[in-house]
Structures are given as structure tokens and as C-alpha cells.
Write a structure and sequence with these properties.
Shape of chain A: extended
Number of helices of chain B: 7
Helix content of chain A: over 70%
Structural class of chain A: mainly alpha
Radius of gyration of chain B: 18 Å
Distance between the termini of chain A: 48 Å
Number of strands of chain B: 0
Distance between the termini of chain B: 37 Å
Largest interface: A-B, 94 and 105 residues
Strand content of chain B: under 5%
Largest sheet of chain B: none
Oligomer: heterodimer
Number of domains of chain B: 2
Strand content of chain A: under 5%
Number of strands of chain A: 0
Radius of gyration of chain A: 20 Å
Structural class of chain B: mainly alpha
């Protein structure tokens, strides 16, 4: 799966685990996806870990991670050493700049799409803006900022539910 | 090496919403605080990790590679993946119990807006590191609009941009 996951492994994960191998039903897929996204770290790695653990325990997890990373890491090392040899060529430089700019655009695109889907209340908007200000603008350490914001947001929703 | 491991593990643990939300923090540490790499290196690693096959965690592997070669790559990858994988297993095994507690619903509601802020921060930080021309801004805006409106494999817009970029470079616009 790792090998074919160009541009992220989300699509191939769905294809293999739901359609081909039938490890998960579509409902289970949606549930696992929600959990994988809420948990910290790479969503798809989290999902793969959960599925592997369910079927084969910790050995399954180890094998799944090995399978997901072994080939991509080998390819990555080949890619970066090749890149270093050719990085002085103007074409390679323009290509890298364009790819980075496109990846920036993708990140913003996903961020905006998430904003549209997720933010349904004034409070949600305030917390989104706060986390953008703390991390993106003021560049504060993430660990403390996220802990602070999560605490604040939990306190807020408890206060709200008591009203 | 210990510092790399600690950095990636601590950041991964709070990176709710996926690897992309780790980017601002890793940039802050690797470029701004310790100067392990400069903005150009970071932008290149970001670009390469997006076109390489495999999970997005590869960006962290590349940062590790730039800092300390193969050992750095393995350290960065493992310290990003293992703690969060362990957390996933733990969570998944307790899921049925946790789901009935009120905490589950609260966390489910309070995380997503923070993820939005983190994603946009990620866009801003990578934009500052990698975009230095009007042409780059145009490509980024174009791709942002395209991916906002259409569900697409991210590789297609990147590939199209690369072709346009090479062409623009040859014509002297980049």
C-alpha cells in the first residue's frame, strides 16, 4: 500500500482494506477514520495500526508499519540523493519551487475545506482563529499552545452544557 | 539524536488532525530555533515528501535526513510514528469503554476547530518558506481554489504545477 500511495495513502487504504480485502465494512471504515483523525499523528498510520491490532495484535501492528514504511523510505532516500546530484539544474529548481507552491496551495485548500465543514458556531470560529494566531502568527511552542487551547475549549464546552 | 527523537515525539503527540499540523512546529524547531536547515532545504523537503509515494510522515523522515543522515531519518520517522501508533492501539482497545464517557463527546467537539487553525498555520509557514515570486503565489492560489472545490488526488495538481513551473522557468518568469 505504501508503495502506491502517491500523494498520501488515503485512497489506496480505502481500496485495499474495504474493497479488496474486506477487513472493514464502509461503516467501520468511517468510524476508524474519525478515530484516526482525532488521535494525534498521521491519520492513516493510526487507522492502519488499529486495523492491524484488531486482527493480529501487536505483531500485526509491527508488520503493518514495516510494510507501510520500508519501500517508501528506500524510494525516498533514492529520490533525495538523486535530487542532490541534479539540484543545480535550472529545470529541477523551477520544478521544486512549483511543487512546493502547489503543496502550499493544497494545504490551504484542505484547511479551508475543513473550515467550511467543521465550523458551525461562533465558539468554533474563535478557537480556530486562536490556534491560527498562536501557532501560525506568534509561532508559540505547539505543545503548550495546544494543551492550553484544548483545556480552554473543554472548560468552555462543560460551561456551555451546564447552561 | 536524542533531541531529534524528543522533538518529533513531543510534536507528534499533540499533532491532532494529522501530520500536516506538525509542520509549523517542526519548522519552528528545525529552522527557527536550531537552524538545522534553512528555508530552502525545508521547502525542498516539503516538495519532495509530497511527490514521493507513501505516507505524509515522510516529510519528517526528510528533515531527519537533512539533520543527521540515515540515523536522523530513522530517528525522526520512528519517533513520529511509534508513540502515536501506541496511543492508537491503546485507544482502540479501550474504545468501547471510552465512548460512553462524556469526555469522548467533549473532545470530539473541541478538537476539530483547533485542527482548522493548525492547517491554515501550516499553509502560512510553508508559504513563507517556499514562495518567493508572484508566479509561486499564483500557483498556490490556483491549486488552493482547485483543491477546495474538487476532490482530487493531490498528485495531479502538483504534477501540473511542476510542468507549468519548468515551462515558466525556461521562459524566465520564475
Amino acid at each position: 500500500m505504501g508503495l502506491f500511495g502517491f500523494g498520501g495513502i488515503a485512497a489506496s487504504f480505502y481500496h485495499v482494506s474495504v474493497e479488496r480485502r474486506k477487513w472493514l465494512s464502509t461503516d467501520e471504515y468511517a468510524q476508524t477514520l474519525a478515530v484516526g483523525q482525532i488521535l494525534p499523528g498521521a491519520s492513516l498510520i493510526n487507522m492502519s495500526t488499529i486495523v492491524a491490532d484488531r486482527f493480529h495484535g501487536l505483531l500485526g501492528v509491527a508488520l503493518a508499519l514495516l510494510g507501510l514504511f520500508a519501500f517508501p523510505l528506500i524510494i525516498l532516500i533514492a529520490l533525495i540523493t538523486t535530487y542532490d546530484q541534479f539540484s543545480h539544474l535550472p529545470d529541477v529548481q523551477s520544478a521544486t519551487k512549483a511543487a512546493a507552491a502547489a503543496a502550499v496551495g493544497l494545504t490551504f485548500g484542505i484547511g479551508l475545506k475543513l473550515a467550511k465543514d467543521i465550523i458551525r458556531s461562533g465558539a468554533g470560529l474563535v478557537f480556530a482563529i486562536l490556534s491560527f494566531l498562536l501557532i501560525g502568527i506568534f509561532r508559540l511552542p505547539m505543545l503548550q499552545s495546544i494543551f492550553g487551547l484544548v483545556t480552554l475549549s473543554i472548560v468552555f464546552s462543560i460551561w456551555q452544557s451546564k447552561k | 539524536m536524542l533531541l531529534i527523537a524528543q522533538t518529533f515525539a513531543m510534536t507528534a503527540i499533540v499533532s491532532i488532525g494529522g501530520i500536516a499540523t506538525m509542520i509549523p512546529e517542526i519548522h519552528r524547531i528545525a529552522v527557527e530555533t536550531y537552524a538545522w536547515m534553512d528555508d530552502t532545504d525545508f521547502a525542498t523537503a516539503f516538495a519532495i515528501s509530497q511527490v514521493a509515494p507513501g505516507p505524509n510522515v515522510l516529510l519528517m523522515s526528510l528533515v531527519g535526513w537533512r539533520v543527521a543522515g540515515f540515523a536522523g531519518l530513522m530517528t525522526a520517522t520512528l519517533s513520529t510514528v511509534l508513540p502515536t501508533a501506541a496511543l492508537s492501539v491503546g485507544f482502540s482497545r479501550l474504545e468501547s469503554k471510552l465512548k460512553t464517557t462524556p469526555w469522548y463527546a467533549i473532545i470530539n467537539k473541541s478538537f476539530p476547530p483547533l485542527i482548522v487553525g493548525l492547517m491554515l498555520s501550516s499553509g502560512l509557514v510553508t508559504a513563507k518558506a517556499s514562495i518567493h515570486s508572484a508566479f509561486g503565489i499564483m500557483i498556490a492560489i490556483g491549486v488552493a481554489l482547485y483543491s477546495y472545490h474538487k476532490k482530487t488526488n493531490p498528485l495531479y495538481p502538483i504534477f501540473a504545477s511542476v510542468l507549468i513551473g519548468i515551462l515558466a522557468g525556461r521562459l524566465g518568469y520564475l
